[in-house]
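REQUEST ID: PR-0412
SUBMITTED BY: lab tech R.K.
PRIORITY: routine
TASK: structure prediction, single protein chain
INPUT:
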Amino acid sequence: METQFRLVVLGCLLAAGTAAQTPSKPSPGAYQAPQRTICLRPAKIYLSPDSNAAVIGRILPGQDVALMGISAGYAHVFANVSGWMRNQGLLPLTTPHGDHILMGAAIRLERQAENNPGEDRVAQNAARLFYRVTDDFPGSPLVPEALFRAGRIAWQLNLSRYGTKKGTYNYMLRGRLLERVLSKYPHTEWAARAAYQLLQKKLTCSDWIRKPSCIEKEGNVYRNYVQHFRTGPRTAEAIYEVAEHEAAAWWVYAQPGRKQNRGKSKSAKRKAEKWIARLQKQYPKSDWAEESLFLSYEIQNGLRPAGLGLKS
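STATUS: complete
OUTPUT:
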């Protein structure tokens, strides 16, 4: 971002020279060295410090803005173009607790996007702000979380955008920010969360009934996760997934037909009960422990596991 800001400063100097030849109204006041700021909310850039002036540009949350001066409630800025915007929503990097303020702005937008499905633009703005925490406040303790949240939004947006078979490979390439969390902060809860999000790359089976071998393949994905993150924030869910996969294998292999294998069915049943017991012991107060009791009830009563209906 430093190189980018140097280019912005150069643009400011050129813009200042132009402004000296063509004065705007009201007088912008004395020129000062540009101050680096981050925009926290969408804004319009006007040709002069007047809301009735021509709009010559727009700024998005998370965008780098060079602040050159303030006059009558308007900020003289450079962000691709030189102009004026209302002096609202610009966060100087020297602001005390600037990382927390930036994080708070990102969280608010993220919540807004979650409460209004389809608001991709709002989600993108939130991701941009989260990423700016990592970029502009590299020493902040918020960086691992901010990087994860930026990556999670980018991942989710690409899943919705490339959710068809044609675009499957496209979204598989999009987990780079989450992978960066794993490489840079491997022993944090955010690495555990990122790793769980990335498991979706390996869950490619869509029909467990016709391809029961997929059940074991995907179950191993969750087993490996549990082995690596034994006490992470998503470990209880992963343990439940292992139990659910074993329950699905128990039921599928017990059905009459070419796929029937009573030995595999009995083995899967024992394994499912073992994983359910582990979940009850390790996370007794979790929702996953409660749901595992229902899974156990289905097994004991010979019922088709409810989760199997989503994979057939």
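NOTES: Strands lie at 35-39, 43-46, 55-59, 64-71, 74-79, 81-86, 90-92.
REVIEWED BY: pending
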